[in-house]
Amino acid sequence: TVGCVVVDGQGRCAAGTSTGGLMNKMSGRIGDSPLIGSGTYACDVCAVSCTGEGEAIIRGTLARDVAAVMEYKGLGLQEAVDFVIERRLDGGGQAGLIAVSSKGEVVCGFNSVGMFRGCATEDGFMEVGIWD
Amino acid sequence: MGGWAIAVHGGAGVDPNLPLERQEEARQLLTRCLNIGISALRSSLSPIDVVELVIRELESDPLFNSGRGSALTAKGTVEMEASIMDGVGRRCGAVSGLTTVKNPISLARLVMDKSPHSYLAFSGAEEFAKQQGVEMVDNDYFITEDNLGMLKLAKEANSIIFDYRIPLTGSDICEKAADAPPLMMNGLPISVYAQE
User: Fold this and answer.
1) What is the DSSP string of chain A?
2) Is B36 helix (H, G, I), strand (E, B) or coil?
3) CB neighbour list of residue B159: distance below 8 Å, 6 or more residues apart
4) What's the confidence (pLDDT) of residue B180?
5) Which is the most buried residue in A74, B17, B124, B157, by most CB within 10 A?
6) What is the ipTM of this complex?
7) Which residues of B fall within a CB distance of 8 Å from A123?
C-alpha cells in the first residue's frame, strides 16, 4: 500500500491511499484502503492514510478514529495517533499510519516491524525512514 | 495556522532482513515522491491535487504494493483499490477490484468529482473508467517477476506454515523456520508479506 497526506498553508487537508491488497488474497477481497474512515480519512481537522493488516484497520476504523479523538477528546495530532495505534488495533493487528493536522503538524505512527515513510514541512524539516 | 506539511508511506510491516540495497531503493523513491509533493505545494496546488499527483508517482513505480508491482490474488491476477478524501467539505471517492486502470487513485478522484457516488467497484468501476477515458492497460502491466515469486512462496507458506519441522530447501524461509518461528503479518511470514 502507498499513501499521501497533505495540509497547505491555509490549513486545508487531504488524504489518499492505493494498494494491490494482500499477496495470495481471495479474488473479491476488499481491504481497508478503499474504505473511507478505515484506510483513508480527511476533514477540517486532519488527514490520515493507513497501511498494514487491513482487517484490523477496518475493525478499528483507524483513520476516522484519529479525527474523532481530536474532535471529541481535544487531543493533539501526536496524542491522537498514539492513542489510536495503541488502543484501536485489537487482536494484535499490525498497522501504521501517516497524518497531518490543519495546524501544519505531521506525524507517523506504527506498531508493525518498520514502515516505509517520509515527511516534510514548510520550515525545511524533511525525514525518510523505515525502522523505528 | 502553521505552514504546509506532507507525508508519504509505502506500507507497514517490513522484513528485518530486507537487503540494504532494497532499503536504499525504498528511501530514494520516498524522497523523490516527497520532493514532487513539495514542489507542487510551493506551486500552490491544492492539497487534493498534490495527494493525487504523489500517489500516481508511487503507483507507477513497481517497488511498493500499488499499481505496477501490486500484490497478486490467489489466481495470480491484480485487483487494485484506492480512495481519496478532501478535508474541505469531506468529499471522497473510492474504487475496488480494478484490473486495467493504470492509476487507481485518479479513478477514485473522478468518482469524487464526476459521479454522484462515493465508491464504485469491479465491473462498475471498470465501466466508469472507460466512460471517463482514463488510461487503461493489460493486467500484465501490473505483474512483476518479483511478485510472481512472492506468490509462489506465499502459497507454499500457507500450506506448510504450521509445520516447522519440514525445512524448505533453497529458500530463506527454511533457514528461518528451522531456527526460529518467523515474524508474521496477516498470516504470512514477514519475508513474503507484501506491505498492504
Assistant:
1) -EEEEEE-TT--EEEEEEE---TTBPTT---STTSBTTTEEE-SSEEEEEEE-HHHHHHHTHHHHHHHHHHHH---HHHHHHHHHHHT-GGG--EEEEEEETTS-EEEEE-SS-EEEEEEETTS-EEEES--
2) helix
3) none
4) 58
5) B157
6) 0.98
7) 3
Residue-wise pLDDT for B66-79, tens only, equals 999 999 999 999 99
Alpha-carbon span B9 to B196, nearest angstrom: 11
Give chain B positions within 8 Å (CB) of A33. Answer: 81-83, 196
- Quickly count: other Cβ atoms within 10 Å of residue B163's Cβ: 9
Q: In angstroms, what separates the C-alpha of B165 from chain A's closest C-alpha?
A: 24
Taking an 8 Å cut-off on Cβ atoms, the answer to whether A19 and B188 are in contact is no
